[in-house]
């Protein structure tokens, strides 16, 4: 609530400093004429040619270039987003709409917002807008929106895969094949069945619920911690038990899955002390955000064996530098940020971005669930 008050008061201060709020606040609805729209996506290079539906890369540009340019808009697409001389910086001063993704995020800092005098709308092609300084965006009167629900299935399926990979000790076995080895004992001594294990999700929003539903056929003990309790009918259908106290839930879990957004409250939440509350040999899956975990605490726990396996596709920062310690810690099954950018997900979030741009040009509101910042208010999950 304190964050909300700060954002709202700052927004109101901006609005009240002029006779007309429209002179300072950056309203959602577009003015007439050509717009400068900048998209920041990862570069695909030769892979871009291998699938016509590969629209989530810089070359694919969400498949909306022809549509935008046919309406007279300028559409700049780049993967170059860091440093004072990057391509994004060349357009900061006069872009009106910025489209970026969680997979190759353009970090929209307070300093960038201050210099982006014409910026009105920040769209996330996917889910998760924590690469934007949301307080600064709210104070400046920006609208921040994302394509809610576009890749929930993709991420939930990926989480289930990672759980199985860790439980069955798959990665060392795969490495044996690559290296020409054959040592069954080196795998079997720490390979288990998923059935009968206790899986707890920290966060049970759209992705968390889908994961729990997909875990039910494995006959696991399912726990969840969230700020909101599920509807009784759904909770009964899934067979999951609500745990109000996270610290009480963690010692019960064989597997902990992170499914909450990155906010001021959750940043660095799983530090040395929080991890110590988990049982020795716990497995972690984190496809939410890397900054929810204390980087060194995870490395230390994997090295000591307190965490028996850690898998995820989220890092901080992204792309992860070559010397990021998670690349080299033991018992990890990490990948680049891929879970929410399957081809199916790309088509969904590309359609969602096009729909919101179309609404923006027409002066129409977005679907309510897509707003992350609207009229100085942060969405509830970010407060």
TrEMBL record:
Homodimer. It comes from the Eukaryota. InterPro entries: D-isomer_2_OHA_DH_cat_dom, D-isomer_DH_CS, D-isomer_DH_CS1, D-isomer_DH_NAD-bd, FDH_NAD-dep, NAD(P)-bd_dom_sf. Catalyzes the NAD(+)-dependent oxidation of formate to carbon dioxide. Involved in the cell stress response. Substrate binds at residues 127, 151. Residues 161-339 form the D-isomer specific 2-hydroxyacid dehydrogenase NAD-binding domain. The record marks 289, 337 as: Important for catalytic activity. GO terms for biological process: formate catabolic process. This is Formate dehydrogenase, mitochondrial. The keyword Kinase does not apply. Keywords: Mitochondrion, NAD, Oxidoreductase. PROSITE patterns: D_2_HYDROXYACID_DH_1 (PS00065), D_2_HYDROXYACID_DH_2 (PS00670), D_2_HYDROXYACID_DH_3 (PS00671). PANTHER family: FORMATE DEHYDROGENASE 1. It is an enzyme of class 1 (oxidoreductase). Transmembrane segments: none annotated. It is found in: Mitochondrion. It catalyses: formate + NAD(+) = CO2 + NADH. GO terms for molecular function: formate dehydrogenase (NAD+) activity; NAD binding; oxidoreductase activity, acting on the CH-OH group of donors, NAD or NADP as acceptor. Belongs to the D-isomer specific 2-hydroxyacid dehydrogenase family. FDH subfamily. GO terms for cellular component: chloroplast; mitochondrion. Its EC number is 1.17.1.9. Coiled coil: none annotated.
């Amino acid at each position: 609530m304190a964050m909300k008050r700060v954002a709202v008061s700052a927004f109101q201060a901006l609005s009240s400093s002029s006779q007309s709020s429209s002179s300072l606040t950056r309203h959602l609805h577009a003015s007439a004429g050509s717009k400068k729209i900048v998209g920041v996506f990862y570069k695909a290079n030769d892979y871009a040619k291998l699938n016509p539906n590969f629209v989530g890369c810089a070359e694919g540009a969400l498949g909306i270039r022809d549509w935008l340019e046919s309406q007279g808009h300028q559409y700049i697409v780049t993967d170059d987003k860091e440093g004072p001389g990057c391509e994004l910086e060349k357009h900061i001063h006069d872009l009106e709409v910025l489209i970026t993704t969680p997979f190759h995020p353009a970090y929209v800092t307070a300093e960038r917002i201050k210099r982006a005098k014409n910026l009105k709308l920040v769209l996330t092609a996917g889910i998760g807008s924590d690469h934007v300084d949301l307080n600064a965006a709210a104070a400046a009167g920006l609208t921040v929106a994302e394509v809610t629900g576009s890749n929930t299935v993709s991420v939930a399926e990926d989480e289930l895969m990672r759980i199985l990979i860790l439980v069955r000790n798959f990665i060392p076995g795969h490495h044996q094949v690559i290296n020409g080895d054959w040592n069954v004992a080196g795998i079997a001594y720490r390979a288990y069945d998923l059935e009968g294990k206790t899986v707890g999700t920290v966060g049970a929003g759209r992705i968390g619920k889908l994961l729990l539903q997909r875990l039910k056929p494995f006959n696991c003990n399912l726990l969840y911690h969230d700020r909101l309790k599920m509807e009784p009918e759904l909770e009964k259908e899934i067979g999951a038990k609500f745990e109000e106290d996270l610290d009480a839930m963690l010692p019960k879990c064989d597997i902990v899955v992170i499914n909450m957004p990155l906010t001021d409250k959750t940043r660095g939440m799983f530090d040395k002390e929080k991890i110590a509350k988990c049982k020795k040999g716990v497995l972690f899956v984190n496809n939410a955000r890397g900054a929810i975990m204390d980087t060194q605490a995870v490395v230390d726990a994997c090295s000591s064996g307190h965490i028996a396996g850690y898998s995820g596709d989220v890092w901080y920062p992204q792309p992860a530098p070559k010397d990021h310690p998670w690349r080299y810690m033991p018992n990890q099954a990490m990948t680049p940020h891929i879970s929410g950018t399957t081809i199916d997900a790309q088509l969904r979030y590309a359609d969602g971005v096009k729909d919101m741009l179309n609404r923006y040009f027409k002066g129409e509101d977005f679907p309510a669930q897509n707003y992350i910042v609207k009229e100085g208010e942060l969405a509830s999950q970010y407060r």
